[in-house]
Amino acid sequence: MTARTKIYFASDIHLGALGYTSSREREARIVNWLDSIKHDAAELFLVGDVFDFWFEYKTVVPRGYIRFLGKLAELVDSGVKLYLFKGNHDMWMFDYFVKELNATIISNELIIERQGKRLFIHHGDGLGPGDGKYKLLKKVFRSRLCQWLFERLHPNLGVGVANYWSGHSRLANAAPQEQKLFENEWLVTFAREALQTQHYDYMVFGHRHVPMVMQLNERSQYVNLGEWINSNSYAVMANGIVELRYFERNGNATANEVQD
């Protein structure tokens, strides 16, 4: 029996985005990937925007994603520890996944030590300089008052409004080639500034949809997990090393080299 020693990270699956057919195809890919890691995974970190929209009413959750949720349940029941991060698209997670999947819900950053390494993990939204408009909106959307008001909407109206909003997001309108990372962009800037006061071996983010590993200094690396719309990218940690990989339907994976 294979030992469960590896730690897996993925982000920005955006289930529900770009229409039903696209979402179902993406769900099938992620389920195949989860099936491929179930024998050696000790922990699974889903680092935000797993869903293009998510809101938990007291007795209602968004329909769909049954194969994905079933596969997560299978992994959890087999002993895999599950962490779900709130992203900017699915920040309204409350206790549904805690009760159903025994998941740990992470609202902001998570700092952990694994395999002798120190990791900083965050979806990536609202960090670094600039983007004041979004930072204000994030505070509003995460406020209990905003959540209470949204709960007053009938689910058909609430989910419909949210899906319309998501359909006009950067994800729906930006071409893959427009998504680029630069040395001085805000997430990289945030990572470099954080390292001035604390040491992290790996700083792991999603949100930017750009799969990349960047050397920040002699001891620290920036890891962006990318997304599952085009890249099917994820990261795996084994023997203290985090490596970015790409999933193919045949179960093979290709690695990403570190950029200076």
Automatic annotation (TrEMBL):
<dbReference type="Pfam" id="PF00149">
    <property type="entry name" value="Metallophos"/>
</dbReference>
<feature type="domain" description="Calcineurin-like phosphoesterase">
    <location>
        <begin position="6"/>
        <end position="211"/>
    </location>
</feature>
<dbReference type="InterPro" id="IPR029052">
    <property type="entry name" value="Metallo-depent_PP-like"/>
</dbReference>
<dbReference type="GO" id="GO:0016020">
    <property type="term" value="C:membrane"/>
</dbReference>
<dbReference type="InterPro" id="IPR043461">
    <property type="entry name" value="LpxH-like"/>
</dbReference>
<keyword id="KW-1003">Cell membrane</keyword>
<dbReference type="GO" id="GO:0046872">
    <property type="term" value="F:metal ion binding"/>
</dbReference>
<keyword id="KW-0378">Hydrolase</keyword>
<keyword id="KW-0464">Manganese</keyword>
<keyword id="KW-0479">Metal-binding</keyword>
<dbReference type="GO" id="GO:0009245">
    <property type="term" value="P:lipid A biosynthetic process"/>
</dbReference>
<dbReference type="InterPro" id="IPR004843">
    <property type="entry name" value="Calcineurin-like_PHP"/>
</dbReference>
<keyword id="KW-0472">Membrane</keyword>
<protein>
    <submittedName>
        <fullName>UDP-2,3-diacylglucosamine diphosphatase</fullName>
    </submittedName>
</protein>
<keyword id="KW-0997">Cell inner membrane</keyword>
<dbReference type="GO" id="GO:0008758">
    <property type="term" value="F:UDP-2,3-diacylglucosamine hydrolase activity"/>
</dbReference>
